[in-house]
Amino acid sequence: MLSVKSLVETCSLPSVPSKYVFPFKSHDTTLAEESEVIPTIDFSFLTSGTPEQKSNVVQEISCACREWGFFMVVNHGMPKKLMDDMLQTSQSFFDLTEEEKGEYRGEQLFDPIKYGTSFNASVDKALFWRDHLKVYVHPHFNAPHKPSNFREISQEYCRRAREIAKELFKGISLSLGLEGNYVEKEMEIERGSQLLVVNLYPPCPQPEVAIGLPPHSDHGLLTLLIQNELGGLQVQHSGKWVPISPLPYSILVNTGDQMEVLTNGTYKSVVHRAMVNNRATRISLGTANGPPLGKVVQPAPEFVDGENRPAAYRGIKYKEYLELQYSKELNGKSCLDSIRV
Ligand SMILES: O=C(O)CCC(=O)C(=O)O
Ligand SMILES: [Fe+2]
């Protein structure tokens, strides 16, 4: 199937082709007040703050996870140049010819490197205004061989993103009143999976009728996301859509479905979507940090209490959960709903 980038570049489209028209409902356009902003977490307090600063930031993580499931991390130590280089080499990947990128075209969910469009075009009802590159980067590192600097840059970027995720897992564990290494140990993060997802949203002639990514929650434990200067991400909060305008060089973080299952719903995954624009290409780059693919994730005993609080989800291998998500259209939290007890 034609990539959106090729569609835009080869045909001068006056309007969006009908298969890209997204069935928005009227309330889908309700935006939250501008005063609604996601919490900001100062990462440096977590790693090198005074005991008081650390305990405050753990408290802030607790509120952010309970009330939002989405927050912006600053002072995270990821070098700015590395963030710029990562976005740049990702853009260069999409700038390769379709023939060059075609090597990585595939429909198999667990292909180590997969270039494509939409989400799963064989089940998506409407197509999404989005091309993507998905690379499994941990525990086995993979990278496309073009552009030539992609391997080196993405390896360093993903390594650092994993380090940041590990510290956040510590903060999250403490915020749940557990030992700092709880999530890391329980979810075997040392050999856990990390999936790099690059989203390319070319300019769209009718941004109000198409969507980049429909409302969905992320499948993993924790997603770290960066983007170029163009907005488009919106997070669902108290029934309204909150547009996200991240500070330059901040990292957006959100809790995913595995976190909701592990904590038996204490920390929920959050629904978000990507809107498109008619000005320029937006690029976003996420790393989904999860347990090993073979790990069965189920509500942990710490969050289950007999009949007072029974397990609300059935245990399922992370790999099978990914298969389940890929077998249906991407639609809010429908995948998580299907494993609710
Ligand atoms: O493009 C964005 O801002 C969001 C991307 C996203 O939600 C995802 O890749 O799962
Ligand atoms: Fe997402």
TrEMBL record:
One short Pfam name that applies is DIOX_N
GO molecular-function term, one example from the UniProt record:
oxidoreductase activity, acting on paired donors, with incorporation or reduction of molecular oxygen
- Keyword Oxidoreductase annotated: yes
Tell me yes or no: is Iron-sulfur among this UniProt entry's keywords. Answer: no
Give every Fe2OG dioxygenase domain span.
191-291
UniProt KW keywords: Iron, Metal-binding, Oxidoreductase
Task: Write out the similarity annotation.
Answer: Belongs to the iron/ascorbate-dependent oxidoreductase family.
Q: What is this protein called?
A: Fe2OG dioxygenase domain-containing protein
Which organism's genome codes for this protein? Answer: Escallonia herrerae
